[in-house]
Hints:
This protein is an alpha+beta fold. It has helices spanning about 1-15, 65-70, 85-90, 95-100, 115-125, 140-145, and strands at about 25, 35-40, 40-45, 75-80, 95, 110, 135-140, 180, 185, 190-200, 205-210, 220-225, 235. The chain has a four-stranded antiparallel β-sheet. It has a three-stranded antiparallel β-sheet with strand order 1-2-3.
Amino acid sequence: MKYAFLLLALIFAGCGESSTNEGESVRDIDGNEYEIVKIGSQYWFKSNLKVSKYRNGESIPTGLNKSAWKRTTDGAYAVYEDEQKNDSLYGKLYNYYAVTDSRGLCPTGWHVPSDGEWNIMVKNLDPDADTACSECEQSSIAGGALKSTATQPTLGGWDSPNEGATNSSGFTALPGGLRLDDGGYFNTVASNGYWWSSSVSSGSNAWSRDLSSYGYSGILRYGYNRTYGFSVRCCRD
């Protein structure tokens, strides 16, 4: 019986079983390198995913125009305003279909975190966080612990005032903006960051976590349509 409880505990904790530790790095199939940070018992990439291929080597579709981006139900990615500098600074913006594609978005031994795994991380940063609430600010301080302290005009920095940013977690969240589902427009780079979870919220929506530069240092949990383009962080298996 005690072994069953141990197994359940490991499944619930997530982001933990691998040979790669904090301070080390992982490469994706394109050769992009990601440093690792430990938050509580979990291990995360320290920067946003940039990969252009699934784990099996097959290319992820890109270059979709506004109309095609809105219509597709296949995995796809975009680079903010199609500018290479944004790919280098913030990584790619993936739709939810890429996140859950069976070919695998993250490198071997890693995965896109579930909504529950995000909740564990938020709770580690703020024991008083409300991880049961829906469409809400889960914590008024955890966002500050996640955000990079860099501000514009530093390349990749947040717009001022970057409220409450300390990056005490080492997560180094950057404001990569998003690609909208309706119209396929890009928006909010430098002021907001959005990250997918792998979990459906309801209907055609899936859970994400949102951070902002303006007015608060919190972290928001919202369900967005699967055709939005958001950043992705990988979590250890």
